[in-house]
UniProtKB/TrEMBL annotation:
Annotated family: Belongs to the glycosyltransferase 51 family.
SUPFAM superfamilies: Lysozyme-like
A cellular component annotation (GO) from this entry: peptidoglycan-based cell wall
Organism, as annotated: Roseibium marinum
Catalysed reactions, semicolon-separated: [GlcNAc-(1->4)-Mur2Ac(oyl-L-Ala-gamma-D-Glu-L-Lys-D-Ala-D-Ala)](n)-di-trans,octa-cis-undecaprenyl diphosphate + beta-D-GlcNAc-(1->4)-Mur2Ac(oyl-L-Ala-gamma-D-Glu-L-Lys-D-Ala-D-Ala)-di-trans,octa-cis-undecaprenyl diphosphate = [GlcNAc-(1->4)-Mur2Ac(oyl-L-Ala-gamma-D-Glu-L-Lys-D-Ala-D-Ala)](n+1)-di-trans,octa-cis-undecaprenyl diphosphate + di-trans,octa-cis-undecaprenyl diphosphate + H(+)
Major place of residence: membrane
Residue ranges annotated for the Glycosyl transferase family domain, each copy included: 67-219
GO biological process, one term: peptidoglycan biosynthetic process
Record's function text: Peptidoglycan polymerase that catalyzes glycan chain elongation from lipid-linked precursors.
Protein encoded by which gene: mtgA
Protein name per the record: Biosynthetic peptidoglycan transglycosylase
Recorded metabolic or biological pathway in which this protein acts: Cell wall biogenesis; peptidoglycan biosynthesis
Subcellular location: Cell inner membrane
EC number(s) recorded for this UniProt protein: 2.4.99.28
Length: 245
């Protein structure tokens, strides 16, 4: 008679083998996902150097069958008034930094460690990275992801292209994306014809685009726009990388 299998013998070995095989497959899949997450943003960024991209927020609205108004226009068809107001309002060091303002970021980390509420410190390139690849909810994890993405975008794209992308995917109202759609929605004119005041109102609406109406700004919004106009006038040569000297 053939010997009976002993408890924990062949049967136990088979179970361990199947379990080991399962975890090998899991590790392989995790490794593949990580490779995609690492290499997809650079590949997409190279594509975005010539192809107009959409933001993750726009994709989210498309998936939900919500209305989206975005009309891509080249940077040359956007008023220099808006370019100056946005750079002054959002990232005055845009032409000089490498995608991240490390000094400003360090100041915010120190403020956080001192128990203070940190402010902004996001560059236009970081905001572009967030809009292209990340999500809208604020968190330190998302902010940490923005840093390498911003450095990568700055290394691959020109300053003009970064700003062109940003101004064409920024949200300026419910379902309103980009400077052209915003200019048409709020002022009934193309983005190239925006006045200094209109540009300042659009730029200062960016931190809270769903609550601020550039066409009929609240008193606080008017004050922000007036401050922006004054800062643009006193800014000096900070727009050279996109508007020339």
């Amino acid at each position: 008679m053939p010997p009976r299998p002993t408890p924990g013998g062949t049967s136990g070995t088979g179970k361990r083998s199947r379990k080991a095989g399962f975890w090998r497959v899991v590790r392989k899949r995790i490794f593949q996902v990580l490779l995609v997450l690492i290499f997809l943003p650079p590949v997409l960024t190279v594509i975005y150097s010539v192809v107009p991209p959409v933001s993750t927020l726009m994709i989210g609205r498309y998936v939900q069958f919500l209305w989206v108004d975005r009309q891509w226009v080249p940077l040359g068809e956007i008023s220099p008034n808006l370019i100056k107001s946005v750079i002054t309002s959002e990232d005055s060091g845009f032409c000089e930094n490498h995608g991240v303002e490390w000094d400003a970021l360090q100041d915010q980390v120190e403020a956080l460690s001192d128990g203070e509420k940190p402010r902004g410190a996001s560059t236009l390139t970081m905001q572009t990275a967030k809009n292209l690849f990340l999500w809208g909810d604020r968190s330190y994890f998302r902010k940490a992801l923005e840093l390498p993405l911003a450095v990568m975008i700055n290394a691959i794209l020109s300053k003009k292209r970064v700003l062109e992308i940003y101004l064409n995917i920024a949200e300026w109202g419910e379902g309103v994306f980009g400077a052209e759609a915003a200019a048409q929605a709020w002022f009934g004119k193309p983005a190239r014809d925006l006045t200094r005041t209109e540009a300042a109102r659009l730029a200062t609406a960016l931190p809270n685009p769903l609550a601020r109406n550039p066409a009929k700004p609240a008193p606080g919004h008017r004050r922000l726009a007036a401050t922006n106009l004054a800062r643009v006038n006193a800014a000096g040569p900070i727009f050279g990388c996109v508007l020339g000297k």
